[in-house]
Design a protein that fits this description.
The protein has 12 helices and 20 strands.
Length: about 400
């Protein structure tokens, strides 16, 4: 079994396969230090924690993660806080930086004797429609080697070799560009509020999310195609404080901006998630905009479902789970995509041909008002916000 990519999807899958006695190797393009320090997600759903717990992979996040169950909306009409952790199913998030989760998963896998090759870039998956697929891999010294396996798991993200190796027409590629871009910032400063902050402002969206006691993520809606370094530190803080209405609701804790990048909010789904012996999971299967913090959570869920199905096939000779793998995942993926799209529409002024429409603007105001006042709307939000 070859697993491409050592992100949350690939490492959960590899740990579970190794634990079931399946012979597998992980091939990762980057070096170990890079993989262990790549800061991305932070909000883990209750179901993600349950999956990791079930397989003894949650020790680090149980010790160092923090439960989080509130988000605050700030608009021209005022502000309100939703205690989503006690609404809906009554489940909070666990805030635990993705790079720490990846480090835990990697350490656990390597200590258990799992095989992994760093700086081994998969170039192509060959013969996926046969029972002996192979992966060509560029080694650190430039040599190209070939790994053969019964199955290949493509967990190498949206720009990996798994997607690129799918023959034209083998799977359907659904895409949606939400037409919005965010400047994502990682700041070395404590969180400025006890909740996730969503500020809806005529100048654009601004977001605040805790990561650790000393690190906070902020987002600023920005022009499409504007380079990440176009904004000075001073301008970033002025814009964040303006959109988050700091003058009214309290100052932001400033600190050095240690990472920045522009994220175009777009989504896609591949269907089905299987082409013969090549199976897709995580961002390789579906990219979801970070507006609702679902990507890493879907990656873990899919990895568990894929591990179960592969173990059934490879250990017990029962291939039925693999046949159902794609359909099972897609139910969760489309539901998450739907909620993520809903969040984008809630948080941004519409853009596009009818961009200035006062009708859209008023609809959005009405949605936010419903969220502030209707208990059933709040329960719906909580269930979808934390669930996958
Ligand atoms: P990853 O984490 O991208 O890992 C893929 C791995 O594959 C390697 N790779 C290759 N290896 C070998 N050969 C090749 N040809 C290869 N090509 C690539 C890469 O080096 C990498 O190590 O995918 P995976 O495992 O599917 O996990 C997906 C998540 O990382 C992603 O969905 C989330 O980070 C999305 N996301 C969030 N998700 C959440 O659930 N909660 C959040 O709060 C959240 N915040 C975010 C996010 C994503 C963000 N960005 C950067 C888009 C915040 C941001 C800013």
């Amino acid at each position: 079994m070859v697993v491409l990519g050592a992100g949350p999807a690939g490492l959960v899958l590899a740990n579970l396969l190794h634990g079931s006695g399946v012979d597998c190797v992980v091939l990762e393009r980057a070096g170990r230090a890079h993989v262990q320090t790549r800061a991305r997600a932070g909000f883990l759903a209750a179901n993600t924690v349950r999956i990791l717990d079930r397989h003894g992979l949650a020790e680090g996040l149980r010790r160092r993660g923090r439960e989080h169950g509130a988000c605050e909306f700030r608009t021209d009409d005022g502000r309100f806080c939703l205690e989503y952790g006690s609404l809906g199913r009554g489940e909070p998030h666990t805030v635990y930086p993705q790079q720490e989760l990846v480090t835990d998963l990697l350490t656990r896998y390597v200590n258990a004797g799992g095989r992994i090759r760093f700086e081994a870039e998969a170039v192509a998956v060959l013969g996926a429609d046969t029972s002996r697929p192979a992966v060509t891999v560029r080694e650190p010294d430039g040599r190209t080697v070939r790994w053969q396996a019964r199955y290949v798991a493509g967990c190498d993200g949206r720009r990996g070799a798994a997607r690129a190796s799918l023959p034209p027409g083998a799977v359907r590629h659904h895409r949606l560009d939400h037409g919005v871009s965010w400047l994502g910032l990682l700041v070395e400063a404590p969180p400025s509020l006890d909740a996730v902050g969503y500020a809806v402002h005529p100048r654009g969206f601004a977001g605040h999310m805790a990561r650790t006691r000393d690190i906070t993520r902020y987002y600023l809606q920005c022009e499409r195609d504007s380079p990440a370094d176009a904004w000075s530190q001073e301008r970033i803080w002025e814009e964040l404080e303006l959109r988050m209405r700091a003058a009214r609701y309290g100052p932001l804790h400033r600190g050095p901006i240690v990472q920045r990048g522009v994220v175009d909010l777009d989504s896609d789904v591949l269907e089905p998630l299987r082409h013969g012996a090549l199976l897709l999971a995580g961002d390789a299967a579906s990219v979801i905009s970070p507006s609702a913090a679902k990507g890493a959570n879907l990656a873990v869920l899919e990895a568990e479902m894929l591990a179960d199905a592969l173990a059934d096939d490879l250990v017990r000779g029962d291939g039925e789970g693999l046949d159902r793998y794609s359909a099972r995942c897609l139910t969760h993926i489309w539901r998450a995509q739907d909620f993520s799209r809903w969040m984008i529409q809630l948080l941004h002024e519409p853009s596009g041909p009818d961009g200035d429409s006062s009708f859209h603007h008023s609809l959005r105001r009405s949605r936010i008002e419903a969220l502030r006042t209707s208990r059933s709307q709040q329960d719906w939000f909580a269930e979808n916000y934390v669930g996958v």
